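Example record

Each entry pairs one chain with its bound ligand, cobalt (II) ion.
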Amino acid sequence: MQTFQLDKQASTVQAKSYTRGDWQRGYESLAKEFDYWIDDIEGQIPQELHGTLFRNGPGLLDINGQRIHHPFDGDGMISRITFSKGGAHFRNRYVRTTAYLEEQKAGKILYRGVFGTQKPGGWLANALDFKLKNIANTNVIYWGGKLLALWEAADPYRLDPYSLETLGKEHFNGVLSEGQAFAAHPCFDPSSTQDNGAPCLVNFSIKPGLSSIITIFELDTTGKILRKHTHNVPGFAFIHDFAITPNYCIFFQNPVTFNPIPFVLGMRGAGECVKFQPDQPTRIIIIPRNPKHKEVQIIETHSGFVFHHANAFEVGGEVVLDSICYESLPEVEPESDFREVDFDALKPGQLWRFNINLKDETVSRELIESRCCEFPTMHPQKVGRPYRYLYMGAAHSESGNAPLQAFLKVDLESGKRQLWSAAPCGFVSEPIFVPRPNSRIEDDGWVLALVYDSEYNRSDVVILDARDFNKGPIARLHLKHHIPYGLHGNFTSECFL
Ligand code: CO
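Structure tokens for the complex follow.
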């Protein structure tokens, strides 16, 4: 099997758009919790921008000075930016998970992390300790009147959207059991065909093993379960994200194997025992959303690794899927320091389109964007449907691998691009598209994102006009502090103050 091909120029050496020191500063802990109206604003917040942006990500990169091994092991911190009448309010709070409370009280690391954080005391102190630390750090959604912090290997934590106080775990009236996984990447179907066009939330949980169990959940707008069905797929599966169409859930089973021995012996985190298999194909798993249709299709394509899918849709007998693909999964080494990562030694994530023919069980693919990119997002009403505009975090330079410093808008119809870059001092996070109220044009709205400004060691909330990145931000809201690089979040038109 061949791997994802890169553009030739991807290996060309060029002047860097950033310094490592600037980039590293965005990985300092933010222990303090704030609550204030943002008063340092360049430009103007649009009056029509009304609602709340929630963000989640690892806020602590150390426990009382003991460094954690990888940011993915950091405790979840929710940031909330509320927009109302041309003003904006900021609040952040940690998710009070059981482990967070215990470790803060003890003032030291008590849990092993999936990505290599170990308790002090060497391998002997860590061997045979399989307790999982639910860190609730990957995504935050507002659904069915509930604000939920998600981490893919365990159950969600529910928070009060006003105070951000942690209320406890959420099991959707017994749909989930204690500790059961609920992925951090739900899809919001704007118009579910099985529910007469009502919106619904689709998510999954995965139980990896020699064969892996995938459970699909669909919830209505009140948070009530509509459908739940379970499927067994052959082989070990490490799946972070998926995509939906009106009729299907689509998963990439990346070619990896899991060797638990170093984990059992206390020498590596479970995530450090996952090994990429470049000679093996990726399996595309297609599960019908209607539980009456039980037949799961598995179609092979080229080797590679995907964390995030942008979107999928159906055209005739084909499923079209857009995903950010890597040539391989970078291995996290126990001795390595993530802040010293050699960007040039890694291959960039690039946007590919897969055309999956369900009848012939064949796949063709094309490279859409060769620039290093991640965190693809789009218009919320276009999830699972043909769509035109895609927004992503991207590298400043056209080629090579680098930290994300820019936002890229891709017009999938015309092929046109727009880029706004925060280089050399700025480092970006996932962009969120918010439609202008009553808009009819797909890109009529704003792109909201947190951007870390290393020059002032603070983060900005940046608002771009989604129709025109070239004119630069229409507003930059300077926070009084930085926010460590985060993961995912969502916008709701409800205003929480
Ligand atoms: Co993700």
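Residues 20-492 form one domain.
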